[in-house]
Amino acid sequence: MSRPEDEAIGGVHIKYLLHCPRQLWLYIRGYRPEQRSDTVAHGQAVDDTTYTRRADIDLGEAKIDWVTTGAIVHETKSSRAPSAQHEAQVRHYCLLLSRRGVNVRHGVVHYPLIRRTVTVAWDASARDRAEETERQARQVIGQDAIPPRLERRSCRGCSYIDYCWGES
Known about the structure:
Blueprint: H1 11-19, H2 21-28, H3 38-49, E1 57-58, E2 63-64, E3 66-68, E4 72-76, H4 84-99, E5 106-111, E6 116-121, H5 124-142, H6 161-165
Parallel strand pairs: 4-5
Antiparallel strand pairs: 1-2, 3-4, 5-6
Helix pairs in contact: 1-2, 1-4, 2-5, 4-5
């Protein structure tokens, strides 16, 4: 049986780490309330109906929305606000591809609901940031005790809110 800290790190791990380390810790241990989340369902619908001619790139530990000629990584988000979490997720995808020998140029986060894109640099500094974020994820995953919950106002819209804030 594999240990949680040996788990391959994908984009969802990075997103959860940066949103809430507790969420990452629970996710890696099999707690997955996202399947019942309206917010997650909405995001999936936006992904399924936007840029429909593109095919996901499945790396095993991560699914990249698409990669265009010249090795530009693309990610679609249903959010109405750009986020550092989204950029970190794209940097992680760039890292995974570069480890496979792909000469990645940069990434782009697409926000179709607000018709906006954000370019994510991929250079030595971005690689260092991606590797550090990956180390942080492994550290949280390897903890024996569950990380503390965030302040409740930070949990709005999180599919883990009932676990963290429900009556016991």
